[in-house]
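Q: You know discrete backbone vocabularies at least as well as I do. I have my own habits and do not want them to colour yours. No explanation is needed for now; the record alone will do.
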Amino acid sequence: MKKFHGTGVAMVTPFNSDGSVDFNGLKSLINYLIEGKVEYLVSLGTTGEASTLNKEEKKKIWEFTAEINNGRLPLVAGIGGNDTASIVKDVRDFESLGYDAILSASPYYNKPTQEGIYQHYKAISEGSLLPIILYNVPGRTGSNVSPETTCRLAHDLKNVIATKEASGSFDQFNQIMRDKPEDFLLISGDDPIAIPMISLGAVGVISVIGNALPKQLSNLVRLSLEGDFKAALPIHLSLIEFTRLMFAEGNPGGIKAALKNLDICDDHVRLPLVQVSDSLRQQVIVELQGIS
């Protein structure tokens, strides 16, 4: 699955001031990312505020994204949740035309056992016509997908092709790399540790900061994948403060503030999220001015 090597961007969902989806802003973002030479786009992941969108809005966003992309880059749709039966139905009903895979976060809030997580993904796998990328993000879901469960899924379910790992545990990354099938992909789910994960064998990142800095980030990832860490390191170091600011008051408030400053889209979010403080906004603007 070479199409998922490199930089994928977990796109924000732009909103108008009245809370409706800003499709002009979304078009601007898609074209900006493609011009920035990222490798693929992820629609309606966590950064896309999927949890506050209804099914009709999601369908329109997926269709619009595929239309504007027009086959230029591979597309991944975020479809996850904590009601397995509902997710299986959503996956079966998903209009897959123009999409290449599904990114599905492990169940949140319920805190299932590892067997429960395995059975959840098995049910999704059996209902999906598209390849599945697991998404382990314990900081949001409240439970961890263990390396043993990840590799069990990878060995047992042939359409489970990758995992987006945002556990932050290098012990976990090491175990996955050691025990996974050869063609199963480890993808970084955290911008700050993309380089060290790639050095272990990860094939790239699904990024937040790539929304605002697609050229810089995709160049960083490509250099790392080529093994030129000496050339990649200065880029990595230049992005550390920007990356910190992006998460200082939560995601996607920070990255939307950056996108507004870049005149890509506005920075409206849906409750319970709120826009970043004026203080942080000014820090983001200053940091952007120093990034080439």
Summary: Residues 2-226 form a domain with the TIM Barrel fold (CATH 3.20.20.70). The chain has one domain: 2-226. The mean pLDDT is 97.
